[in-house]
Design goal:
- This protein has 373 residues and is an alpha+beta fold.
- The protein has a single domain, classed as DD-peptidase/beta-lactamase superfamily (Beta-lactamase), CATH 3.40.710.
- It is built from 11 helices and 15 strands.
- The strands form 4 sheets. Strands 2-1-15-14-13-12-11-10 form an 8-stranded antiparallel sheet, with helices on both faces. Strands 5-9-8 form a 3-stranded antiparallel sheet.
- The radius of gyration is 20 Å and the shape is globular.
């Protein structure tokens, strides 16, 4: 299930470390703020022109120097409904960023520590789990001999809840290890367990706690968590503009995926994050340091993929069948990008093109400024 996500993350690392380039005008909702944005519009317009108004589509946000440069949407949320800035999308694994932030709010409140063990909050787990810490879960430093979320176990995920997953990991013969040094393997199970720990430590259910400490403070009015007790709202984009299912199943595990948010919500989220309305900047700095190395799959902090070296950035992608999403924050250029899409491979390709054009636009712009006498 995570192959497209990992592929896109690797592509982002490549984009940032190298250079490259790519008829319909941008939608009237687009905001062009700074004097250099028109050249970005010109570069993006050919990509937008590839998107049909009648097909599943995308929402795009570009912010630079804390100003909105582009905010636009194109395509269909469902058969008769156009995508707008308030259309909710399943954001896939970007949900992990929000789960990690919720954990950090509890740490700031003194209700958790990174070194606390899983067994302090979740009972009935095999003995091997007693050595696994919250920090291990946050950084994917847990090895499982059987992966509930693997493609071959897709049948297990149909109608699965967090309780279903807990039953799975309690089974005999499932080996659990803490990976050595900074080694990591991408782990959806880890973030489902974090959602359960949040519920136990906060005395709120996971969805209510996210609303209390993230969605409400950040004015994320169209964000919610899909679980077995939640119906998909009419304002939510359908997968391929046709169905609430992905991979032909329904799934209700939370923490690793399951969040729905709109473009406006994620715009407000970025503002709230920078204004310390969710966690302190020192906590965010800790989260966006490298805590684990997933090898070819990239570097990981706490709930963030990390681009390190001379031009650090932090981001997370999401891939759930037709839903492909990206949240990208690039402090060196004071640049933020959000892309939400519901059209599978077709919009995924457009998403990659847009990311490349936007990043290279601002990298080139900064090089030109730096080279002036």
């Amino acid at each position: 299930m995570i192959n497209l996500l990992i592929t896109f993350v690797i592509a982002l690392f490549t984009i940032v470390l190298t250079h490259s380039n790519s008829a319909m005008a941008i939608e009237p909702t687009t905001q062009l703020i700074d004097v250099n944005s028109t050249s970005l519009e010109a570069k993006l317009s050919p990509i937008f022109a590839k998107q049909s108004d009648r097909h599943p589509g995308f929402s795009l946000l570009v912010k630079h120097n804390d100003k909105t440069i582009i905010k636009t949407s194109k395509g269909r949320a469902s058969h008769n409904v156009a995508i707008s800035e308030n259309t909710g999308f399943r954001i896939g694994s970007i949900s992990k960023t929000f789960t990690a932030l919720a954990i950090m709010t509890l740490i700031e409140q003194g209700k958790l520590t990174l070194n606390d063990k899983v067994g302090q909050y979740l009972s009935g787990l095999p003995t091997d789990w007693q050595k696994i810490s919250i920090k291990d879960l946050m950084s994917h430093r847990v090895g499982l001999s059987k992966d509930f979320f693997s493609d071959k176990n897709l049948h297990l995920a149909n109608n699965a809840t967090n309780t279903t997953l807990l039953q799975f990991i309690r089974q005999e013969g499932l080996a659990i290890t803490t990976l050595s040094k900074n080694e990591a393997v991408y782990c959806n199970t880890c973030y489902v367990l974090l959602a359960e720990i949040i519920s136990h430590a906060s005395d709120y259910n996971f969805s209510d706690y996210l609303n209390k400490v993230i969605f409400a403070p950040a004015s994320m009015k169209h964000s919610y968590i899909v679980n077995e007790n939640t119906n998909i709202k009419a304002s939510t984009a359908l997968n391929y503009a046709k169905t609430t299912h992905f991979f032909n199943i329904e799934q209700y595990t939370t923490g690793a995926m399951a969040q729905i948010s709109s473009l406006n919500d994620l715009d407000n989220f970025i503002k709230a994050l920078k204004q310390e309305k969710i966690v302190s900047l020192s906590t965010l700095k800790l989260m966006t340091q490298v805590h684990a190395d997933m090898g070819d799959d990239g570097l990981y902090g706490f709930g963030w993929m990390i681009g390190w070296g001379s031009e650090p950035f932090y981001s997370h992608g999401g891939s759930q069948d037709g839903y492909q999403t990206e949240l990208f924050i690039y402090p060196k250029y004071n640049l933020e990008i959000v892309i939400l899409s519901n059209g599978g491979d077709e919009t995924y390709e457009l998403q990659g093109e847009m990311i490349r054009v936007i990043i290279n636009h601002y990298k080139t712009q900064k090089m030109h400024i730096s080279s002036k006498p």
